[in-house]
Write a structure and sequence with these properties.
CATH superfamily of one domain in chain A: PPM-type phosphatase domain
InterPro entries (chains A, B): PP2C, PPM-type-like_dom_sf, PPM-type_phosphatase-like_dom
Oligomer: homodimer
Protein name (chains A, B): Protein phosphatase 1J
Organism (chains A, B): Mesocricetus auratus
Strand content of chain A: 15-25%
Structural class of chain A: alpha+beta
CATH class of one domain in chain A: Alpha Beta
Largest sheet of chain A: 6 strands, antiparallel
Pfam family, one (chains A, B): PP2C
GO cellular component, one term (chains A, B): mitochondrion
Number of strands of chain A: 20
Order of helices and strands of chain A: HHEEHEHHEHEEEEHEEEEEEEEEHHHEEE
């Protein structure tokens, strides 16, 4: 996530020119700091139960000045190679030993020197959920047999430092587990979820008749709430609790910066794809492309941002206007009529330029250059609690949302073949590769491997990363068509939907 | 638009039961009141030029206690028949004399006794736009030859009285015309629209170099603004100015109630379909259904409404909570855990019930029974400036939006046959008829007429209205499948996209 955070507003406001300033990327928490993952038990908001993230690991981890996903199993030498901007070696889990669940493929590459370390992080886990009301001591194995585990994949694209991405990669799935703890019995019961539960989380809910309130006492027919929507709500709240934990712990653990989060939860036959940021997930099924996320940027969220600025003008200080203009207005243009867009508009109209319109627009620029408050190019994600407009005390966080959009894909609804995959990639992939090109690479690479060869998905992830990175020529990393490859960090998961070892 | 506004909150809050109260429908302004259409020149907001609606008609109209669209050419006897709840005769323009432009079909029927008069209104016009900068005295004919006219169709579904719908049917197209006056030359120029115009609206814009600002002075590449987006912006602002005019004139002209507005503007080869409310527009092309609008209801706009209540809690008074619950909470359930949805959530989760949660939810109910503040079932439209929560001074208008969603259909991109039509209907049609059934009726009716018979579109509109109304049996209006037909007002336009006389 390079060039995603700019501290250029002062320069822009004063000169009217295009800034070339880049984000400063502070180091990750150093080796002597406690692992943010588990050092503190997050405090749950009083009214929302079940938000305690599990106990800290028994031994403190020793960490280098930067880290890569543990499943890469990097030696100290491998870690140095992964951190080499000149070589930009593609990293994947070793072909020996334990594979990732479902034979998931993974590959990543560091950026071309734009930030000191790779600010992407990733996580792939099988997470077992113990019911808050279950008998203490139930073995993990028995829980696994009851199907109360979920599979989890997460990509975290950091900006302005790798701290938030690293913390999220270590903790977000634990927040999801906590949110699911109250739902273990409910999700396994074929009956619709009870609308009301007794106050004590430990009490089994089904002996309580409060969810059988007679229809007469209701102001309208009861809304039917599905099991699926409970899982969606659990993931949404886990994102919020993760973000709140980052806010609390940012000083103690140097959790600087922020990150986009793209997460997949497989639970009871369904894939829940949750996206907050500008990473992307697509399914390739029988050659067809099924989008499983959309990107949240200043352009796609313009109206949400403008509405907030309009309703809460104090968030704009005296520096910004919530109106959008197609270019910077010059003071000499006062009184003339300029095209603008208000928060309710998708079209453009002319308005007479007034003094307030000379302020900097809350949302400006296009495509990868679009920015909120001339600073950040992504509008959802975790962290960024310290982010301020340059040369100002104006916080940007109120305009950012930590809530993901969750899309659900029912794996049981389709017969999947070994070539059907879910591809997750950070924006480093998608900046230079479109969905169709990814689908073509899926077809090309998988067809050269036996369907039951579990290494084919890692080979595919590597091909996708290599194809987006390019090779070093002249002063840039070039693609075969001589276009510039991505100089950004790139991380890719390839999750087979019907391959050997799936759902294991 | 029946049952769209309820004044039932007090009853609901006190009893927890389902209310059977209905909206009170005040009469339209009576015959002695000045026609709201043109009696006052609307005041434009200071910073937005060109919002003056044209001069009043030269003679004051004599109006009965209710009115129907002038293109129906109803005699006093016909007007009485159109107002007869028992007969529910389907009304259409006469088959003799001047047809509607494009041989547009139209049909309507009054409700089955739920409100005193038909609260739907309709308008179909060819509107000529004179440039603000053009030489005074340019003849209408010369403007028409230059193609500076637009075709206009509007359906207005009133609630809590017919005043807003009638006013909108007489004035909204004039507001659109006013907004387009500044754009006459710009829309005809193949160059991209200038970003900045001189301050005097009368000065031709193209002699002014201000839109040729050198790129160096811009903070980013200039955003490209299309001609199409200018028309969209003009329509959006026209809706807002119409709503503001209603707010100003509501007392003087008894503009009570509100209305949904579904409007089509055909200009320079494109159809602009603007919808604010729960009417619906679909195109049937070669048997395929192309949705041209979506409905704005408490359910579809839940998150927008909740966000507003969250950011501006003063709008909720002490009666409402912005949280959504799947049913009414009983005081005895305090401390238990209830399913809820917050403004950022699409899924559900459990929360401990606190005292504030006993307030009435801002958004409650499902489907046609969904309500904002237990009062209104539609969330976009014009008017409703006086609407208050029952037994309270709490205004509901802040939660309603007057802005339409505008979709654009380029007529020049397809070859259309005489059976391709755009169907506009108020919710009376869509409550009992789905898109596929409408497409089947289009096919069935049009195939019985010669392709060049201009009366086929009116016959189709009549068939659609009849099919949704049903016939009087027992105590209801029944459909052939014995389901209840719509007891609501129903109005339908059928606009041929490739038929004889099209685009004339």
């Amino acid at each position: 996530m390079l060039n995603r955070v700019r501290s250029a507003v002062a320069h822009l406001v004063s000169s009217g020119g295009t800034s070339s300033q880049r984000p400063k990327s502070p180091d990750l928490p150093n080796a002597t700091s406690a692992p943010p993952a588990a050092a503190e038990t997050p405090k749950s908001p009083p009214a929302r139960p079940g938000s305690e993230v599990g106990a800290p690991p028994k031994t403190a981890e020793t960490r280098t000045s930067f880290s890569r996903p543990t499943f890469l199993q990097l030696s100290p030498g491998g870690l140095r190679r992964a951190d080499d901007h000149a070589g930009r070696a593609v990293q994947s889990p070793p072909d020996t030993g334990r594979r990732l669940p479902w034979s998931t493929g993974y590959a990543e590459v560091i950026n071309a020197g734009k930030s000191r370390h790779n600010e992407d992080q990733a996580c792939c886990e099988v997470v077992c959920v113990e019911s808050r009301s279950s008998v203490t001591g139930a073995s993990r194995e028995s829980i696994r047999n009851q199907g109360l585990c979920f599979h989890y994949w997460g990509l975290f694209d950091g900006h302005a430092g790798g701290g938030a991405a690293e913390m999220a990669s270590r903790l977000l799935h634990r927040h999801i587990r906590e949110q699911l703890k109250d739902l273990v019995e409910i999700l396994q019961d074929p009956l619709p979820p009870p609308l009301c539960l007794p106050s004590t989380p430990g009490t089994p809910s089904f002996s309580d008749p409060s969810h059988l309130v007679s229809p007469q006492s209701c102001w309208s027919p009861q809304k039917e709430v599905t099991h699926e929507s409970l899982v969606v709500g659990a993931i949404e709240n886990a994102f919020q609790l993760m973000d709140e934990q980052m806010a609390r712990e940012r000083r103690g653990h140097q959790v600087e910066g922020g990150c986009c989060a793209l997460v997949v939860v497989y639970l009871l036959g369904k894939m829940y794809v949750a996206n907050a940021g500008d990473s992307r997930a697509i399914i390739i099924r029988n050659g067809d492309i099924i989008p499983m996320s959309r990107e949240f940027t200043p352009e796609t969220e313009r109206q949400r941002l403008q509405l907030l600025g309009f309703l809460k003008p104090e968030l704009l200080g005296s520096e910004f206007t919530h109106l959008e203009f197609p270019r910077r207005i010059q003071p000499k243009e006062l009184g003339q009529r300029m095209l603008y867009r208000d928060q309710n508009m998708t079209g453009w109209a002319y308005k007479k330029i007034e003094l307030e319109d000379l302020r900097f627009p809350l949302v400006c620029g296009e495509g990868k250059k679009a920015r909120v408050m001339a600073t950040i190019g992504v509008t959802r994600g975790l962290g960024d609690h310290n982010l301020k407009v340059c040369s100002s005390t104006l916080p940007i966080k109120p305009f950012l949302s930590c809530f993901p959009e969750v899309r659900v894909y029912d794996l049981t609804q389709y017969e999947h073949c070994p070539d059907d995959v879910l591809v997750l990639g950070t924006d480093g992939l998608w900046d230079v590769t479109n969905d169709r090109e990814v689908a073509a690479t899926v077809d090309r690479v998988l067809s050269t491997y036996e369907p039951n060869d579990p290494s084919r998905y890692t080979a595919l992830a590597q091909a996708l990363v290599l194809g987006a990175r390019g090779t070093p020529r002249d002063r840039g990393w070039r693609l075969p068509n001589n276009k510039l490859g991505s100089g950004d960090d790139i991380s890719v998961f390839v999750i087979p939907l019907g391959g050997p070892g799936s759902y294991s």
